[in-house]
């Protein structure tokens, strides 16, 4: 079968400001591609930013390929499924430009994972995949398109009805083969996830583990990338070596929590590449932090979230370290690693003066600490369920309204005030 995989050309005017907007490799589509090609299918993978194409250009390229199925993602790569833009206007605009020329249209991403019917309606596509998508897309290509009701984790229309075949899928992941990327994409991938100096060569993203053993209340992980899985080391290293051969000098591990893993760090230490990670600093002992630095880590984004033990308990972080321990661990990390950032989240009851003093202490010692940011209560997070109950067809609208309400108090977070979701999605079908 011929299948097109499309990461549309994103734009974020008046949207929320929660993630890095530079282009990244579309890991979700790359994982689909490797499984589809292994099953013998012909795949066209396009990325609006990395290919330098507008939405209309993408639609033309897909139409020329004449696929039986076109898959579009609703978040700009797996890295941002946890902090996606809430609005679906960009994938909808791509699908509108494509019309009927792409065969059956399939949406994958965080939106359809939690609110499949709404996403199907807003995008006016044929099928929504719920949860991690690569194995479900491969099943669709392997005969599933003809028997949608036999494929789990889908939503589709059957006459006037919408059928949902099951809850969100989780990929095996452990044996995910090495992903492959076009040379031109790696060459154009200038962005590095570090902020202490300008990039000196191409960067790329890699995934060594998926999911997280914790369940912080604000974390959008209920419907995807939930259970922690570690990928086979030979597959990771094959992918890493290929990227280095393509010129990458920096890798960013998109793992939601890069846990200490001696064999991986020792293997990276023998390679000429730098890398960045996001993790929880309380899970790293000093000797492993030293190994992390020796392996080539140049950037750590460490979640501290709240500065009080009561605040961390409120966020359900299951963190046993004291606030002083966390500071010590961050300062230790800063010795072998040139850029260390502590991410703080604003929790009701936290003392702004305490946050400012702690931040200043760390900054004086070379550890960057942001001002505490407000939370977006993603429908896939425990916080959403606590605030609003189970997500329904209006879940994204409710989450957005809640966030805008906080924004009135935290207007220093983002230069531009985000617009209401209905305004951002004016071009989408009403839910
Ligand atoms: S540690 Fe908490 S915030 Fe981080 S990925 Fe795990 S559940 Fe989410």
UniProtKB/TrEMBL annotation:
Q: Which cofactor does it need?
A: [4Fe-4S] cluster
Query: Do you know which Gene3D superfamilies this protein is assigned to?
Result: Cobalamin-binding domain (3.40.50.280), tm_1862 like domain (3.80.30.20)
Q: Which UniProt keywords apply?
A: Iron, Iron-sulfur, Metal-binding, S-adenosyl-L-methionine
Q: Does the keyword tRNA-binding apply?
A: no
Taken from the UniProt entry, a GO cellular component term is: cytosol
Q: Which residues form the Radical SAM core domain?
A: 198-420
Molecular functions (GO terms): catalytic activity; iron-sulfur cluster binding; metal ion binding
Q: Does the keyword S-adenosyl-L-methionine apply?
A: yes
Q: Which PANTHER family match?
A: ANAEROBIC MAGNESIUM-PROTOPORPHYRIN IX MONOMETHYL ESTER CYCLASE-RELATED (PTHR43409), BLL1977 PROTEIN (PTHR43409:SF7)
What is this protein called in UniProt?
Answer: TIGR04295 family B12-binding domain-containing radical SAM protein
Which organism is this entry from? Methylobacterium currus
């Amino acid at each position: 079968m011929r299948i097109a995989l499309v990461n549309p050309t994103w734009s974020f005017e008046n949207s929320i400001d929660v993630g890095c907007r530079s282009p990244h490799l579309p890991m979700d589509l790359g994982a689909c591609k490797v499984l589809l090609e292994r099953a013998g299918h012909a795949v066209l993978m396009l990325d609006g930013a990395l290919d330098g194409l507008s939405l209309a250009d993408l639609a033309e390229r897909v139409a020329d390929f004449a696929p039986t199925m076109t898959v579009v993602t609703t978040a700009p790569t797996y890295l941002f499924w946890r902090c996606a833009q809430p609005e679906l206007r960009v994938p909808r605009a791509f699908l509108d430009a494509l019309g009927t020329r792409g065969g059956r249209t399939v949406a994958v991403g965080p939106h359809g994972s939690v609110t499949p019917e709404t996403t199907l309606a807003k995008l006016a596509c044929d099928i929504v995949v719920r949860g991690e998508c690569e194995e479900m897309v491969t099943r669709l290509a392997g005969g599933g398109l003809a028997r949608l009701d036999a494929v789990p984790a889908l939503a589709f229309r059957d006459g006037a009805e919408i059928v949902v075949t099951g809850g969100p899928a989780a990929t095996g992941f452990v044996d995910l083969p090495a992903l492959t990327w076009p040379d031109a994409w790696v060459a154009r991938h200038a962005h590095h996830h570090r902020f202490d100096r300008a990039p000196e060569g191409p960067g790329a993203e890699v995934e060594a583990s998926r999911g997280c053993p914790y369940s912080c209340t604000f974390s959008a992980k209920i419907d995807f990338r939930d259970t922690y899985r570690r990928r086979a080391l030979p597959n990771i290293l094959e992918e890493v070596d290929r990227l280095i051969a393509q010129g990458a000098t920096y890798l960013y591990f998109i793992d939601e929590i890069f846990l200490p893993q001696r064999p991986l760090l020792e293997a990276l230490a023998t390679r000429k590449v730098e890398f960045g990670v996001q993790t929880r600093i309380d899970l790293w002992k000093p000797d492993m932090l030293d190994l992390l630095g020796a392996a080539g880590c140049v950037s750590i984004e460490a979640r501290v979230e709240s500065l009080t033990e009561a605040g961390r308990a409120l966020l359900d972080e299951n963190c046993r370290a004291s606030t002083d321990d966390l500071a010590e661990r961050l300062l230790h990390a800063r010795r072998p690693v040139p850029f260390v950032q502590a991410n703080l989240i604003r929790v009701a009851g936290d003392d702004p003066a305490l946050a400012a003093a702690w931040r200043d202490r760390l900054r004086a010692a070379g550890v960057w600490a942001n001002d505490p940011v407000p939370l977006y209560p993603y429908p896939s997070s425990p916080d959403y369920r606590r605030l609003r109950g189970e997500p329904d067809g209006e879940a994204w609208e409710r989450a957005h309204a809640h966030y805008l309400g906080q924004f009135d108090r935290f207007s220093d977070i983002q230069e531009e005030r985000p617009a209401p979701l209905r305004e951002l999605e004016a071009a989408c079908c009403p839910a």
